[in-house]
Design a protein that fits this description.
Order of helices and strands of chain A: HEHHEHE
Helix content of chain B: 55-70%
Structural class of chain A: alpha+beta
Order of helices and strands of chain B: HHHHHHHHHHHHHHHHHEHHHHHHHHH
Number of helices of chain B: 26
CATH topology of the domain at 3-109 in chain B: Helix Hairpins
Largest sheet of chain A: 2 strands, antiparallel
Number of strands of chain A: 3
Number of strands of chain B: 1
Distance between the termini of chain B: 79 Å
Oligomer: heterodimer
Number of domains of chain A: 1
Structural class of chain B: mainly alpha
């Protein structure tokens, strides 16, 4: 079951929604999300939201910046997860 | 044994023959360790050890016999890994999820009507492989049409307030302080009010833009837009996740650069960072709105939309070119996106987003733009070659004008080779809003005051309220214009402002009568050339010095070439 999820993400042609994946695997969305979170903890998938938390240290908009989560200009993007790439062997 | 039967007989998941053998072996070892068995159930602990639970491992090390159990668990995990080719905890979790899924399928029965939610039904159209992009483009066109048309009456109102009552109040105060006619009045009126006021005039434009974007975001549509554009990126051979940072760039390029950190592959990250500046940030919008109002008044919204579209198209074409040459690499990874359900935006949510973003813009006006306006005024007040004295010289003979005049010939082939236009582009490096404030200062125009009685403070306040109400009514009338219904038909068109007239005259002169083409070329140059210095600092932070210089020089060259094609190509075709 877990490996099926990973395989589906790896072989998808382009981005795929959680609902679409849930329908293809015939798995409840809540269960699927839990499995994805498992692979994030295992390091096989990357949670983009966690990776994107940054701050504009220069405070360019004239105000103090407390990070991307509170930046007025950062549009709220959907949560996404991607395959963690293997580092190329030298 | 199915999940429901398992529940009926007592809860115990079957982890497969090999795993159950290891669990039994470990359970037996645990049962023979008194210090451990007195605390933990044997089977439960055995499974936890195979899962490599950190907390349990820590607690076990402090118990007598715990180290031996840990060693035995490590051997069991190694045996399972050799059989299944994956960690033991993955095997355990896999079996659990299989059991959970089986149970849910047995006991949860969804009526056929519930299988596809309303959001799913809408998504079948909105994220359709063929319809998704046209729907996205239409949504963005509607955003810019609404922004340009609905904000115009308020833009005029803010301009009236700044150049009318506020300027006259400042002059009256200076008269009372015996400072009228001095350099102080020039600094405040020609520097601060012309510079900062020139940018604040566009607050209504940005409010409407942020209002429209807030509605799209809060409704859940923006997530679909990101999904659809990411799919396009993937189809074009670019990284699917590239569009997410780019979408951030529509608000501000600075966080967009930092958002490229989500891309693991360095080549993809650098490539996306090089493309981010082409997503036209909110600060450039006042330039487009002003020039579209001057040269393309009846199609201003569509022209502004076209600028954003051109930015996206440039990024895509450049991305494909670079991906197949400098950044050739392995196929990028796919990803899963969690689309939130659609919901009706709340007034509070929309107001919050609109207010937060607009107030950031206003804060910038009172910091960076104010400082730049003052510096600019000083540079325009310093005479060159002995012509006049400080703050009493013709602006054409100032230090600022002299430097700009030296650079202006570079832009002559683009149709805007005047020192005024050049100076605005130079100061645009500080912040893109400064392009407008600089034009307000260098063109040095003042609205012609109609002869009449001097008004009191309260009369001014009354007039401001009356004209605000009139602007609101005009805004409401302008909304049906988006679909072509003109409720203001027959009403007298507003006269262009003195600044608009000065820009139009200047561009007509430098372009040999092709003012509209030169205006369009100027907009294209502003779209493509180097972003503000803060964005460049963020770029250097994320991409390194080498790629930052490549980006700066590349954008300048590309901006010049594209503006050249627009102007000269348009002339050849007999346009404008």
């Amino acid at each position: 079951m877990l490996h099926q999820v990973l395989r589906m993400v790896e072989t998808a042609q382009g981005p795929v929604t959680l609902n679409e994946l849930s329908r293809k695997l015939m798995v409840e969305p809540a269960v699927l999300e839990s499995m994805i979170q498992f692979w994030v903890r295992k390091g096989r998938l990357v949670d983009e939201d966690a990776a994107a938390e940054t701050s504009c240290t220069t405070g360019s908009c004239g105000g103090s910046c407390t990070g991307a989560a509170s930046c007025a200009f950062v549009a709220k993007m959907p949560r996404s997860y991607s395959i963690k790439l293997e580092k190329p062997k030298n | 044994m199915n999940a429901a039967t398992t529940l009926a007989r007592g809860f115990a998941i079957d982890y497969g023959r090999e795993a159950e053998e290891e669990i039994s072996r470990l359970s037996a070892a645990i049962a023979e360790t008194p210090a451990v068995i007195s605390i933990f159930p044997a089977r439960w602990l055995a499974i936890k050890l195979l899962e490599s639970d950190q907390d349990i491992q820590t607690r076990l090390r402090m118990l007598q016999g715990g180290a031996a159990l840990l060693a035995e668990a490590a051997e069991s995990s190694a045996r399972l890994e050799a059989i299944y080719g994956d960690d033991a905890d993955v095997l355990i979790a896999d079996r659990r999820y299989g059991w959970i899924n089986g149970l849910v399928r047995e006991v949860v029965h969804r009526p056929a009507t519930n299988r596809l939610t309303a959001s799913d039904q809408i998504d079948r159209i909105v994220t359709h492989r063929l319809l998704g992009i046209p729907i996205f483009l239409f949504a963005m066109w509607a955003v810019f049409k609404l922004t340009a048309d609905a904000s115009a009456p308020y833009l005029d109102w803010v301009e009236y307030v700044i150049s009318g009552p506020i300027t006259s109040w400042v002059v009256a105060i200076l008269e009372a302080l015996n400072l009228a006619g001095t350099w102080v009045e020039s600094l405040l009126v020609d520097g601060v009010i012309a510079g900062v006021g020139g940018v604040l005039v566009f607050v209504p434009v940005l409010m409407f833009l942020y209002l429209a974007l807030a509605v799209l975001e809060d409704s859940g549509y923006m997530a679909r837009a990101a999904f659809v554009m990411d799919r396009l990126m993937h189809a074009l051979g670019l990284h699917g996740k590239s569009f997410l940072p780019m979408l951030v760039g529509f608000g501000c390029t600075v966080p967009a650069f930092y958002a490229t950190r989500t891309l693991e592959n360095e080549k993809d990250r650098i490539l996306t960072g090089l493309l981010v500046p082409f997503m036209s940030c909110g600060a450039r919008l006042p330039v487009y709105v002003l020039f579209a109002a001057i040269f393309f008044a009846s199609n201003a919204g569509s022209v502004v939309f076209a600028m954003y579209l051109l930015g996206i198209a440039t990024a895509i074409v450049l991305g494909i070119t670079l991906k197949n040459t400098v950044f050739k690499g392995k196929e990028q990874s796919t990803f899963v996106m969690e689309l939130p359900p659609y919901r009706l935006p709340t007034l509070r949510g929309i107001w919050f987003h609109m207010w937060e973003r607009t107030s950031s813009f206003v804060r910038k006006a009172w910091t960076i733009i104010l400082a730049t306006s003052i510096v600019l005024w000083i540079l325009m007040a310093i005479p060159v070659g002995g012509a006049g004295s400080f703050a009493d010289t013709d602006v054409d003979n100032s230090v600022f004008a002299t430097v700009s005049q030296a650079i202006a010939p570079v832009f002559a082939p683009l149709g805007f080779g005047s020192w005024e236009a050049t100076s605005a582009l130079m100061t645009g490096f500080v912040a893109k809003e400064v392009v407008i404030s600089t034009m307000g200062q260098v063109y040095g125009v003042q609205e012609v005051e109609e002869a009449g009685e001097a008004t009191t403070f309260f009369e001014d306040i009354g007039e401001m309220i009356t004209s605000f109400i009139a602007a609101t009514i005009d805004t409401i009338k302008s909304i049906p214009l988006i679909v072509g219904i003109d409720l203001a038909e027959g009403e007298v068109e507003e006269e262009p402002t003195a600044l608009m007239g000065a820009i139009q005259a200047s561009f007509n002169e430098t372009s040999g009568g092709y003012g509209a083409l030169a205006g369009l070329a100027f907009m294209v140059f502003v779209l493509i050339y180097t972003p503000c210095m803060v964005a460049v600092a963020a770029e250097r932070h994320e991409l390194g010095m080498k790629w930052t210089w490549v980006s700066i020089l590349g954008q300048l060259v590309l901006a010049w070439l594209m503006a050249f094609v627009v102007f000269q190509g348009g002339k050849l075709l007999g346009l404008g």
